[in-house]
Design goal:
The chain has about 290 residues and is of the alpha/beta class. It has one domain: Ribokinase (UDP-N-acetylmuramoyl-L-alanine:D-glutamate ligase), CATH 3.40.1190.20. Helices cover about 45% and strands about 15% of the residues. The chain is globular. The mean pLDDT is about 95.
Length: about 290
Amino acid sequence: MDLKMSDCKEFVEKRNVNSNKGDFGYIAILGGCINYSGAVKLANLSSSAIRAGAGVTRLIVPKSISNSILPYLLESTLYPLEDKDGFMLFNEKEIEKSLNKIDALAIGMGWGKSEDNKKILSYILENYSIPIVIDADGLNTLAEMDLELLKNAKSKIILTPHPKEFERLSKINIEEILKNSVKIAEDFAKEYNIILLLKGHETIVTDGIETYTVKKGGAGMATAGSGDVLSGIIVGMIGKRKPTVKLVANCAYIAGLAGEIAEEKYTDISMRAHDTIECIPEAIKQIRI
């Protein structure tokens, strides 16, 4: 079914005046490498998570790129992991420390590809029950692993591929995906017991049983970092909420609506992903009306 603005109201209700930051989730974003440090993109992720309501955000990055990211962080904390040649090294104890007291995790943005990334992803999926958003290089890493790992994961997994990333994951030709996207997305989500958000002009969000389509956004969102903003919104909203299909679809709606507002303000040519973040509050205001 098509998600409507009225369907999103339940997720943006006003907060109790006696709230504190712990009531809204401690979330973490794990990513970055020497080739794709993406300091601004990682900061955007953190910023969009805060704008979406996260209480506290933590960026987990390779130690060697931490100095390039620090200048962009205002409200977030930073946890550097040991690395080799700019790529994270798998260290069980360090992973545990970095995820201490974390309620939700986004993983894979600007992460690059390495064997240690596979070890890190496998370890987290096998040992943590927090909801996890996997995007970008997290998806590319997962595509080279045994997807049975998803079926056995303790976590509720949310995958957010664009069609090419979904082709790598599903091993289904992209032309076939585009022709029959809803059915293929539903079958994949059901088989692997995950929530799948398949990006596109019409975004599909499904767990194989319940399916929503989101028709929000515009041409101005075809710019670097827009997918990261969406992942930030998702992880920001699942810190203290059960990650349902409807909630994830709501996140796609907020991202798309914020993008439309930004496009109206800055034009489809000139808007940046950060402009979408800055328009998240206006999107929430419109949904609340």
